[in-house]
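#structure-requests
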Amino acid sequence: MYEVLAEVVRNGFAESLHYGSVAGLAPDGTLAHIRGNPEETVLPRSTTKPFQAAACLAAGAPLAGERLAIAAGSHTGEDFHVKTVEAILGDAGLDAAALRCPPTWPEDEPTKEALIRAGRGESRERMNCSGKHAAMLAACAANGWPVDTYLDPDHPLQRLVRRTMADCSGEEPSPVAVDGCGAPLFGLTLTGLARAAQALVRAPDGPCRAVGDAVRAHPEYVGGTGHVNTELMRALPGTVAKGGAEGVLVAATADGRAVAVKVIDGSPRATTAIALSALAALGADTAPAAALGTVPVLGGGRRVGEIRTVPEGSQ
């Protein structure tokens, strides 16, 4: 049974509602905040990327700093992102032609406009998942694994991704699907996803902790200019935040409070606010990120309302 997690209010009238579920963990791993059904399986979408990056690192891919952060991110396709992707590929003896993610325009609008003015089109390296794909190719190159089939669920790298997710989440990932970028996608419960997010900040060492440290040190490679994941991590230093398509988001504070969110209609517009509300319910100080706790609703170019969270038990 899903709960109302957020409402869209225009001029005092609630015109839309977002239903979903939340799993929130206390620092000791206890499931301490529940909304809806946190034991239902979801497809984690791009919240999987930190664990895919951890698997690449465990496989021997030479990733650190910005390169590890972009492997775990959904970048906005800015020039500095592309340079990092190209550097990962170049050190593996490859180029953008090896990428199997689809060509797209960058999500960053000024970059897109500059490319159009220059007469250039869509490309694979501008796709928001290209950092992950470059890391996967680097892991294949480090092990002599086939690069043409790196997206096959039975490829050695993808088997390692699945084992990494199982180790971090404490459950066997299922079902197996295909993500928007073409990579294998493994389902988890929201509770398992929250446990995996917690591992990014609570593991004493190892690949998952290395990824968590990298994304916190370089949040601009996880998203980009103005990206909400980047802004959240800057507002709450020490916090990991990673969103995904279809209304999924994970966040974990430096002291181990962790949440996983799923909005059942698939909209991401309220997920950050919902995650912040859940972290606050777990006792985290989210005041520095208060500006992200609501989303403006505009009318005629001016603010006439907001998307805001709905407290537990108020509906």
